């Protein structure tokens, strides 16, 4: 019997453009979550200082 030829997949190197675009996509995705987190923290801090200025909250514990 004659041995048949088997088609093998040839491995190629990484595509530089594809790697750059993938990295940019991941960076934008992660960066957007980080920015949303920063905006939420900034909103909490502003709300705290607004309440502090209005006198609704205090940072000193009253002694009894």
Automatic annotation (TrEMBL):
Cell compartments where the protein resides: Mitochondrion inner membrane
Domain of life the protein comes from: Eukaryota
Gene Ontology terms: cellular component: mitochondrial inner membrane
Keywords: Membrane, Mitochondrion, Mitochondrion inner membrane, Transmembrane, Transmembrane helix
Keyword Plastid: no
Residues that span the membrane, as ranges: 20-36
InterPro entries per record: COX5C (IPR008432)
Protein family membership: Belongs to the cytochrome c oxidase subunit 5C family.
Functional note: This protein is one of the nuclear-coded polypeptide chains of cytochrome c oxidase, the terminal oxidase in mitochondrial electron transport.
Descriptive protein name: Probable cytochrome c oxidase subunit 5C-3
The organism of origin for this protein: Cucurbita moschata
């Amino acid at each position: 019997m004659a041995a048949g030829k088997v088609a093998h997949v040839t491995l190629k190197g990484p595509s530089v453009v594809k790697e750059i675009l993938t990295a940019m996509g991941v960076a934008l995705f992660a960066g957007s979550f980080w920015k949303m987190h920063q905006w939420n923290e900034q909103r909490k801090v502003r709300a705290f200082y607004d309440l502090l200025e209005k006198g609704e909250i205090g940072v000193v514990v009253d002694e009894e």
